[in-house]
Specification:
heterodimer, A: alpha+beta, 11-stranded mixed sheet, 12 helices, B: alpha/beta, 10 helices, globular
Chain lengths: 409, 288
């Protein structure tokens, strides 16, 4: 059974919606800005690819969803504090509306989500007079916003009646969620799946933890560049409506793209580093190609985080997979690393590349590192004949995902 | 309805001492859930080999699907971070960005990522196949089992791992009025071609009460579920397990473990699981 995409919704630092996202990529915009949603002035890193809203409120959500503010009145304050909940809602609504607002009573949800949000301010009440945390005081407090609030709020808003699969596979979550959603349809388990990813780690604990790892760049993110020195933290969401081709045709809706194949593997190497021989990451790409019945793709949207470790390993994986090198770019210099949503937003870039017959560039790439030499690597956006596009995601812990989209026929 | 063979089961409700220095070092980066998962997965894989199942000595390509809970990272580090960030009884972001962050290990983030509950045992056992970690309050663990049926891998490990032994998790369970479950990791080794202990059928998310009447039903569900079971299967023995309805990822897997144990007496056992606030799902088990 063919699996097709009939709706796409995107939220990113380039704007709310798929159009500002794509237009921004094509115009070479992005690259992060000083963080505004909390005071990060004392943090090691103070820039991120933040969605342009300092504080999410019911009226802000109402304005961007064109739903009445009362829709969001039942929301717990935690749902508003955890930005990924709102981003998921916005993206899901856009996708659903583009798909013609199908009935989702028997639809499934397959969503990549980030970590639960820690409400650090609530911990203040747990301190005993000596300044130590006394956990016995925790009973009446809600100390974190569970990660499944994203799924609950999306399902509630769109009346999704089927099971909710919430994928927590770090940076590979979005890609794995898309692969899972496609398999549910191709094997007849579901007729429609709302699928994608949403995440925001641009909060004190998220930014602090990543800074402590030394992961973010102190300047800009330069994927595959010899001067690369880390990633750009990003936030946002990309959500899709997936259904069988027959179901979409019966509904008379436009098919945007088709999911041709996917591959998921595990490095099983080290917790803190990718497998240096790229065997398993390459295997994920090869599995996707085999299942799609393809020898190669025209465009590959790389994981391309801009870290010292990731980029050369990924270049090795790509060069060892493709005998005919595809066009390659990474959008993480522009929109940042969306963590659990990165695979999803990068698949949105692939779908829009297929639609517009253009490939995004790699913002801030100037001097390609010899270790990252890729014949088709693009610095700037360009027109291109694109019939097939692959997105790759390589998560912390070694989870690898590759998903291939094909042009709607 | 398609089925998979159950080759072995690994289960642990406690963490043994490390076997050597290398294991002790590896554990330093693990959350409690990751530790539990690693112990149970090692047990399960060892059982597969002990049963002289030739395919299981080579684990390249074995699939791995887990229902995992919220992160269970070391709260002492979190406590230090907060304590060092306090100024006059209030959280101070300037202090957090400087002293607070330095109170944590640089690798603390890896403990907080709940996918590491899957990644650490995968690294330990060399499981390179298709994989996914499902955030679970019960349903995620069922979806992990469901994923096994659609996996490209012929051999998969599936289970649920979670712990309430985490002050945040315990506090939130009390706040929600949900029963506090037990810490556990339960891992099933499943195969398309072998069945040593049992056969397991595809999870059912709708039409739970139709089909052939089971002999035994193990139910972790609300009173509506209980009534529906009695109405649909008046001849079946129905054993209610309300304490299993806690919102931890290991809950369904513990019910499934009990089902396999009952196959000595019953040809076929049906499990219906419904965590608090979730929809119910059904999994059937039969003798090999």
């Amino acid at each position: 059974m063919r699996v097709v995409i009939t709706g796409i919704g995107v939220v990113s630092s380039l704007g709310i919606g798929q159009h500002p996202f794509w237009d921004g990529l094509m115009q070479g915009q992005g690259g992060g800005r000083p963080i505004q949603n909390f005071d990060a002035s004392a943090f090691p890193i103070g820039r991120a690819a933040e969605v342009d809203v300092a504080r999410i409120t019911p009226s802000w959500l109402a304005a961007h969803t064109t739903l009445p503010p009362a829709t969001f009145s039942p929301w717990d304050v935690g749902d508003l504090l955890d930005r990924k909940v709102s981003f998921g809602i916005l993206a899901a609504l856009e996708a659903w509306r583009q798909a013609g607002q199908p009935d989702l009573e028997s639809a499934w949800l397959s969503l990549g989500v980030g970590l639960e949000y820690a409400r650090l301010a609530q911990f203040e009440a747990l301190l005993d007079p000596a300044g130590n945390i006394d956990w016995r005081r925790a009973a009446p407090q809600q100390l974190r916003v569970p990660a499944d609030r994203c799924g609950l709020r999306i399902a509630e808003l769109l009346s999704i009646g089927g099971p909710q699969a919430l994928h927590c596979s770090a940076c590979a979550s979005g890609g794995i969620a898309m692969a899972h959603g496609a398999s549910l349809i191709s094997r007849g388990r579901a007729r429609i799946v709302i699928c994608g990813g949403t995440d925001s780690m641009i909060n004190p604990l998220g930014l602090g933890g990543m800074s402590r790892l030394g992961a973010p760049s102190p300047t800009v993110c330069r994927p595959f560049d010899r001067r690369r020195d880390g990633l750009l933290m990003g936030e946002g969401a990309a959500i899709f409506v997936l259904e069988s081709a027959e179901h979409a045709q019966a509904r008379g809706v436009e098919i945007i793209a088709e999911i041709l194949g996917s591959g998921v593997t595990q490095d099983a190497y080290k917790a803190t580093a990718p497998r240096p021989d790229a065997q398993c990451s390459s295997q994920a790409m090869k599995h996707a190609l085999t299942r799609a019945g393809l020898a190669g793709v025209d465009y590959l949207n790389a994981h391309g985080t801009g870290t010292r470790l990731n980029d050369p390993v990924e270049a090795l994986a790509i060069n060892s997979t493709f005998s005919h090198p595809p066009l390659v770019s990474s959008i993480k210099g522009a929109v940042g690393h969306l963590m659990a949503a990165s695979g999803a937003i990068e698949l949105a870039a692939c779908a829009l590349a297929l639609k517009h017959q253009q490939a995004p560039g790699t913002l801030f790439l100037e001097q390609v590192d010899a270790e990252c030499a890729l014949p088709g690597l693009l610095k700037t956006p360009q027109d291109a004949k694109i019939r097939t596009a692959m997105s790759t995601s390589f998560g912390f812990g070694g989870q690898n995902a590759a998903v291939i989209l094909g042009r709607s026929t | 309805m398609s089925s998979l063979g159950v080759v072995a089961i690994g289960v642990t409700t406690e963490i043994p001492a490390p076997r050597d220095q290398a294991e002790a070092r590896a554990r330093m980066m693990m959350s409690r859930s990751a530790l539990l998962a690693s112990v149970a997965t090692a047990q399960c894989c060892a059982q597969c080999c002990a049963r002289s199942c030739p395919d299981w000595s080579e684990r390249h390509g074995v699939g791995f699907y887990l229902g995992v809970g919220a992160s269970s990272g070391d709260t002492r580090q979190l406590a230090r971070l907060v304590s060092r960030s306090m100024n006059d009884g209030a959280l101070d972001l300037t202090l957090l960005g400087t002293k607070g962050l330095r109170a944590c290990s640089p690798l603390y983030s890896f403990e907080l990522m709940n996918n590491f509950t899957l990644c650490h045992p995968a690294i330990q056992e060399g499981l390179t196949g298709p994989n996914a970690a499902f955030l679970s309050r019960g349903m995620g663990t069922a979806l992990a089992l469901d994923a096994a049926f659609t996996s490209e891998a012929d051999r998969v490990l599936v289970g649920g791992v979670d712990t309430p032994d985490h002050p945040i998790a315990a506090a939130e369970a009390r706040r929600a009025g949900a029963p506090i479950g037990e810490e556990a990791a339960v891992i099933f080794a499943l195969s398309r071609s072998e069945a040593a202990l049992a056969r397991v059928f595809e999870p059912q998310f709708w039409a739970l009460y139709t089909g052939p009447a089971p002999q035994l039903v193990l139910l972790a569900g609300d009173n509506d579920c209980l009534e529906e079971c009695h109405r649909s299967w008046p001849e079946a023995r129905i054993e209610h397990r309300p304490a299993r309805r806690h919102n931890l990822a290991a809950g369904p897997a513990l019910l499934w473990l009990e089902a396999v144990g009952q196959l000595a007496q019953y040809q076929r056992v049906t499990t219906i699981f419904q965590a608090v606030g979730e929809t119910a799902f059904r999994v059937d088990w039969a003798r090999p």
